[in-house]
Amino acid sequence: MFCTSEKYLRFVTFTLLGVPGFESFHSLISAPFFIMFVCSVIGNPLIVYIILSDRGLHAPMYVFLSLMAITDFMLSLCVAPQMLAIFWLNSRVVHFSRCVIQMFFVHFLSYMESGVLVAMAFDRYVAICQPLRYSIILPGPVITRIGLVLALRGVLMVTPCVYLVARLPYCGHGVLSKSYCDHMSIAMASCGNYTINSIYGLTQLILAFAFDISAITLSYIFIIKAVLKLQSKEARSKAFGTCSSHVCVISFFYIPGGFTVVAYRFGKNIPPSIHSLLSLAYLQMPPMMNPLVYGVRTSQIRDHARKLIYKIKM
């Protein structure tokens, strides 16, 4: 029986398989992802606390970093608890409404993360290429508006996905070969034609990430040109050093994300277990690595964290 009307959607459920074919190894597979989750829920709030408590870190660069930390923290909370419930408790069944809510936040926070990386690249461009106008170009109100625009972009891009999955017919129960709910997994679990979902999903990915990657690349082209014009080797080294953390974070986000998209869209012969592990790594690795990268490579954050640890020991 096809359940097409909204009043029946609450009876639709999905079974999340976790890592298909490796159910007996779920406890072992969960170990690295649990470590990622713990690092994320400790490291990201710590970054935000350090930035908020030190007035010297209220510059635009650190405001964007705190926004990224908040995004990473929320993304970990959105995905990891359900993933661990599947791996540890075999709790696989999720209702349609809960699945769609998770889908919304997974995609929204992913777009937010990508947008924040663009904002951070623009911040580095202004700091290196327009240093005398830095405070004029990026005052507090402008940073607030940038954050609101990024949030609005995410909402506008993901909201149609909610409608597109709600309009599909379902047969009462579906199977998702992942540990979380996303747009195309829900659509493919339906009993109807999900061609529109596939077209929209691919189009929004191309438009959003192609724009973001192009904007970041363009910013760094100007940055490299400006740095190479510096006469002092020490000045060049310092300028590149301020960008190195951001480049690492970009790599942690876009490289696994690129592999995930390519494997999901074009790797028809790739086993579902690989798809599942790639998607989990894409969502869990950046929230773990970003605080570590900025904590190790940013002296102000590192020194403040050291003082905080010393106080706790005392």
UniProtKB/TrEMBL annotation:
It comes from the Eukaryota. Its main location: membrane. The chain crosses the membrane at residues 29-52, 64-89, 101-122, 142-166, 205-228, 240-264, 276-296. InterPro entries: GPCR_Rhodpsn (IPR000276), GPCR_Rhodpsn_7TM (IPR017452), Olfact_rcpt (IPR000725), OR51/52/56-like (IPR050402). The keyword Transmembrane helix applies. It is found in: Cell membrane; Membrane. GO terms for molecular function: G protein-coupled receptor activity; olfactory receptor activity. Pfam families: 7tm_4. GO terms for cellular component: plasma membrane. Gene3D superfamilies: Rhodopsin 7-helix transmembrane proteins. It is a multi-pass membrane protein. Residues 43-294 form the G-protein coupled receptors family 1 profile domain. Keywords: Cell membrane, G-protein coupled receptor, Membrane, Olfaction, Receptor, Sensory transduction, Transducer, Transmembrane, Transmembrane helix. Odorant receptor. Belongs to the G-protein coupled receptor 1 family. This is Olfactory receptor. It comes from Pyxicephalus adspersus (African bullfrog).
